[in-house]
Amino acid sequence: MCEERATISNGILGILDLEPGSDPNGSLVSGSLQDSSIFTFPAIRETVSGAWADVVVRGDPSLEGPYIAAAKCLVGRGATAITADCGFSIRHQAAIAAAVPVPVAVSALLLTSMIVRQLSGGAKLAVLTFDSTHFGTELLGLSDPCDISRVVVSGIENTPTWQNEMKRPPVRTELSVLREDVCSRVEQLREKHPEIKALLLECTMFPRIARSLRRSTGLPVYDVTTLGRMLMESVAPRSYARLGSKPWS
């Protein structure tokens, strides 16, 4: 059920949440989309009915309706842009965007094309996903075979982190466990593909260790928070005058 409309006027990011939704009485996971301190703008959340992690990851067309309904609720509550708390939500990107009158960018995977074009001709982009067994190249949004060949994908399936998230309800994963599960896959990828020059994190848990990955690899790291800031900067730009400089015209 939709909650009452928010009244903040300087831009609100709406987040489509997986089941069971955020626990209002539980502690927030630092560095995740549940952590309001990662953004300088307000965010509101709406749970997509039936969108458990295991269902969203493997893909279920019947979730399109619940995704649209939740997005409409977010707009009704004042969201000026919408993203989602699972990168595999990209399967419903087009349907959601067509159903609401605000910008929609539900997955960091939408950044793939932009990143590939930033890299030199021989460089590759590594995509780190929650589950590579359900990750097809169609999720990259690339049509040029040459561009597709420059992307390598690895997932954390069957790790402790994966096992925790696939439970109903999911079990919180300690930061040290998440770091080990993801970093080990990154190391394996870089050994196999030394030409990797950037990392894209599909899973919305992974921003918790993005800083560690930047330090350990020296590579640019992109994730859903990169996407969220870009999205909100386009609809509700910061007050540069307040920072002592002039806005670009």
Topology:
Layout: E1 13-17, E2 43-47, H1 53-58, H2 64-76, E3 81-84, H3 93-99, H4 112-118, E4 124-129, H5 145-148, E5 151-155, H6 160-165, H7 175-192, E6 196-201, H8 210-217, E7 221-222, H9 224-235
Parallel strand pairs: 1-2, 1-3, 4-5, 4-6, 6-7
Describe this protein with a few key phrases.
Rossmann fold, alpha/beta, 33% helix, four-stranded parallel sheet, three-stranded parallel sheet, Aspartate/glutamate racemase family protein, 7 strands, 2 domains, plasmid, disordered C terminus, 249 residues
What does this structure look like?
This is Aspartate/glutamate racemase family protein. Keywords: Plasmid. It comes from Rhizobium leguminosarum. The protein has 2 domains: 13-107 and 228-235, Rossmann fold (3-Layer(aba) Sandwich); 108-223, Rossmann fold. The protein has 9 helices and 7 strands; from the N terminus they run ββααβααβαβααβαβα. It has helices at residues 53-58, 64-76, 93-99, 112-118, 145-148, 160-165, 175-192, 210-217, 224-235, and strands at residues 13-17, 43-47, 81-84, 124-129, 151-155, 196-201, 221-222. Strands 5-4-6-7 form a 4-stranded parallel beta sheet, with helices on both faces.
In short:
With 249 residues, the chain is an alpha/beta fold.
As a percent range, the share of helical residues equals: 25-40%
Q: What is the fold named in CATH at topology level of the largest domain?
A: Rossmann fold
What would you report as the Rg, rounded to the nearest angstrom?
18 Å
Beta-strand content:
5-15%
CATH domain class of the largest domain: Alpha Beta
**What distance lies between the first and last C-alpha atoms, to the nearest angstrom?**
41 Å
Helix/strand-derived category reads alpha/beta
Shape annotation = globular
Helix and strand element order: EEHHEHHEHEHHEHEH
The strand order across the widest sheet is: 5-4-6-7
How many domains?
2
CATH architecture of the largest domain: 3-Layer(aba) Sandwich
